[in-house]
């Protein structure tokens, strides 16, 4: 079996628009309290599709945020193993650095890892990563950005 063939080539602008649009679509489905099974499927596929399109065009920051979205989707669904995988990928990408990261990205990545550990039932690891995320707060200049992450951390069931 040879190399897998690549999907049809799209221009950078199309990949970017699809990455953003699918991210927002997935976020809307995550927030929907009465999601159907079909919408849950769309939410999972939307997160991965968004991440794929960011891979085709974007800086590490977009790939990390795409991994964050995948981790959150799986955490919302109570699926620990994929939530941990994507949360740890998010954190690894943030820690590698590169272009475009903001002062809140590391705290957000740590929140994703904490949430995934909570879903997995590992309270000690969840608390440890929550503490690491809180330790990042002094580095976050914008109060609104910090409050978003504080709210996310407060919603982790530990």
Structure explained in plain terms:
With 158 residues, the chain is mostly helical. It is 73% helix and 0% strand. The chain has a single domain (12-154), classed as Serine Threonine Protein Phosphatase 5, Tetratricopeptide repeat (Alpha Horseshoe), CATH 1.25.40.10. It has seven helices and no strands. The protein is globular and about 45 Å long.
Element-by-element helix/strand order: HHHHHHH
Instruction: Let me know the number of strands.
Output: 0
The CATH architecture comes to Alpha Horseshoe
Percent helix range:
over 70%
CATH H-level superfamily title: Tetratricopeptide repeat domain
The overall pLDDT, averaged over residues, is: 95
CATH top level is: Mainly Alpha
Unreliable sequence segments: none
Tell me the fraction of residues in β-strands, as a range. Answer: under 5%
């Amino acid at each position: 079996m040879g190399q897998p063939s690549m999907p049809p080539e799209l221009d950078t602008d199309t990949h970017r628009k699809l990455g953003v649009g699918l991210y927002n679509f997935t976020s809307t489905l995550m927030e929907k309290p009465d999601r159907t099974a079909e919408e849950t499927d769309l939410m999972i596929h939307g997160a991965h599709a968004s991440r794929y399109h960011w891979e085709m065009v974007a800086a590490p920051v977009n790939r990390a945020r795409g991994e964050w979205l995948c981790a959150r989707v799986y955490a919302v669904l109570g699926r620990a193993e994929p939530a941990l995988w994507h949360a740890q990928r998010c954190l690894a990408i943030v820690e590698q650095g590169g272009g475009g990261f903001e002062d809140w990205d590391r705290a957000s990545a740590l929140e994703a890892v904490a949430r995934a550990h909570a879903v997995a039932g590992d309270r000690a690891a969840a608390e440890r990563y929550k503490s690491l995320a809180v330790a990042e707060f002094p580095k976050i200049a914008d109060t609104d950005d910090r409050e978003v992450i504080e709210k996310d951390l407060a919603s982790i069931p530990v």
